[in-house]
Amino acid sequence: MVALAVAVWPRGDEATEQPQSPPAASGVSDDLRAAAHLPDCPGGAATGSGPLAGITLDCLANGRPVDLAAALAGKPALLNLWAYWCAPCAQELPYLQQYAQRAGNAITVLTVHSDPDEAKALSRLRGLEVRLPGVSDADARVRTAVGAPAVLPISVLVRADGSVADVVVRAFGGVDDIANTVAGKLGVAA
């Protein structure tokens, strides 16, 4: 009984104690997110459709939930599924960044990290100096929704109406490869 009283007895001046904020649900610190310098994920008030409707994922930039179909609604998109441990993904991500810069606002380019370890994803992007918006998909919900095989990298080309134009199951070999593939499947010139 004495041990219990000692264990629960208040210590020090409680008025000077600072409240501690709970750790983020993902375990990723705000500092690590900030160090990656990622842009915020696209957002939209529109209701999205297609196979991505109903999928909510966390934005890598800030950990906030993103309704994927709503975020992509109204504009063609290239979703790139990758993981921090995937060597072909690491070669392809800088090409995607260059393509996104070249294409401008004509298309949304969004990375989809397909592994539960967000911290390693953020570190990998930082090391590659890739600054694309991205979401975390630890449960492979995007891959499952579009019927893609369990390999990486995969790029999903989504039409403005939310339907899937193509699932590209290979690494892109360069910016022109991405531009030609997107132009052929989505009609977006870059």
TrEMBL record:
Q: List locations, semicolon-separated.
A: Cell envelope
- GO terms under biological process: cytochrome complex assembly
Q: Does the keyword Phosphoprotein apply?
A: no
Question: Where does the record place the Thioredoxin domain?
Answer: 32-187
Q: Which GO terms describe its cellular component?
A: cell envelope
Known InterPro entries for this protein? Answer: Redoxin (IPR013740), Thioredoxin-like_sf (IPR036249), Thioredoxin_CS (IPR017937), Thioredoxin_domain (IPR013766), Thioredoxin_ResA/DsbE_sf (IPR050553)
Segment Disordered: which positions?
10-29
Matching CDD domains, A to Z? Answer: TlpA_like_family
A GO term, aspect molecular function: oxidoreductase activity
**SUPFAM superfamilies cross-referenced by the UniProt entry:** Thioredoxin-like
A Pfam family matched in the record:
Redoxin
Q: What keywords appear on the UniProt entry?
A: Cytochrome c-type biogenesis, Disulfide bond, Redox-active center, Signal-anchor, Transmembrane
Protein name per Swiss-Prot or TrEMBL: TlpA family protein disulfide reductase
